Amino acid sequence: MLLPQNSKWSCGLFCLAQIASAAVSPHPNLSWSADAAHSARTHIQIATDAEFSEVVDRDVIDQVARYVPDQALAAGAYYWRVKSAAGKLQQGQFVVDAPEHVIEIPLGSGMTAIRAALGQALEQSSTLIRFEPGHYDLHPEFEGTVFDIEQTENLIIDGQGATFDIHAIARLARVRFSKHITLRNFTVDYAVPIHTAARVDTIAPNGTMELTLWSGCVPPETLPRFMEEKRGLFSDPTYPRMALDVPLLVYMKSAWEPLGENRYRLQAQKASDLRNVKPGMVYVCAPRYKSQGIEIFNTEDVSLVDVTTYYLPGIGVVTNFADDLKLIRLQILRREDRLIGLQNGGTNIHGARIGPWVEGCRFENTGDDNNHISSLVLTPLAQPKPNEVVIGKNQPGTHVLSADMDIREGDRLAFFQRLSGSLLAEATVLSATVGTKSTRVVLDRDIPELTVGAKGQNFPKLEVTQIYNLSRACGNFVFRNNSFVRGRRIGILLKSGPGLVEHNEFRELGGGGIEIWNAPFEGLNAHDVLIQNNKFIGNGVAWRNRCPSPAIWSAVFGGQTPQPLHRAIRILNNEFIDCAGPAMHLADVDGLIIQGNRITNPGGRGVRAEQTRPAKESIEVKNVRNASISGNTIDDFRFPKNSEK
Question: pTM value?
Answer without folding.
Answer: 0.94
